[in-house]
Each structure stands twice: as C-alpha cells, then as structure tokens.
Amino acid sequence: MQALHLIRYLADMTSSSPPQTACPLARTLELIGDRWSLVILREIIKGQHRYSDFSHCAERIPTNILANRLRRLAGYGVVARVPSRSSPKRHEYHLTSKGAALLPAMQALARWGGDQLPECYAPPEQFLALTVEELPTRDPD
After folding, report:
1. For the segment 39-74, what is each residue's pLDDT rounded down to a tens digit?
2. Which residue range(s) make up the domain with 105?
3. Cα–Cα distance, 82 to 93 (Å, whole number)
4. For 15-36, how does the pLDDT look when each residue is reduced to its tens digit (9 = 90+)?
5. Can the keyword ATP-binding be found in this entry's annotation (predicted)?
6. 7 in any annotated domain
7. Of 24, 82, 135, 136, most Cβ neighbours within 10 A?
C-alpha cells in the first residue's frame, strides 16, 4: 500500500496539473525551495556550466537528483540547456534572465546564513557585490 502512495505522490510532482496555490512564495518554493536548486544556480553564477561541474561541487549532489533539478530548472525557463561548444553531444546550462533575477534573493539568503548560522562563513564580497545586470544570460530565441 505504501508503494502505491509513493507512486501517486511522484506522479503528482511531475504532472502538469494546475498548481495547488497561487501564492507566489509557495509557488517559488515549489521550484527552487529544495536543497539543491539554488546550489546549482550558485555554481552557474560561479562560472560552472556542465553536468560534471555540478556533480563535483562541494555539496556532492546525487546524480539522479541533479538530472531532475536541471530538467526542472530548464523546464521553468530559469536555466537554458545549450549544446556544448566542445562536444555537441554534451550540454551546458546557463542562466536565463529569469534565473538571473533570482540573484538578489540568493544574496539575501547567503547574508542571512552568514549572519545567523554560526557554522557558516560570511558570503564572499564578490558574490554580494554582483548585480543582475552583470550576470551573463542566454535566453531562448
């Protein structure tokens, strides 16, 4: 019986059914509120663009979760999946303008963590000084 509930839960997560809420905070958290999505976006901001780059970051994102999050972020237009220049069989991930617009929220969360969580280091000034306009983006044509 538990397996059936799990299957229904997973189906609900991937279905294209209407959202459960119109609350912007709740909907945003559905997209980027998991443990990994903002880490992926942080890595892209740092200049990492390949799947292998993300899988080797300090947080060691499990590969099945990484693939899922990249698909979801691309599906919502937060990142663009583009063929790699070095190998057309491989892809790179770049911020779109929608993804770049998350920068101020990411900076605020990093500041809060640095200020309020004693086990965290202060966020790098270089990151906090970035502006949305400075981030390279690739929007779909």
Report:
1. 999 999 999 999 999 999 999 999 999 999 999 999
2. 21-134
3. 6
4. 455 568 889 999 999 999 998 9
5. no
6. no
7. 135
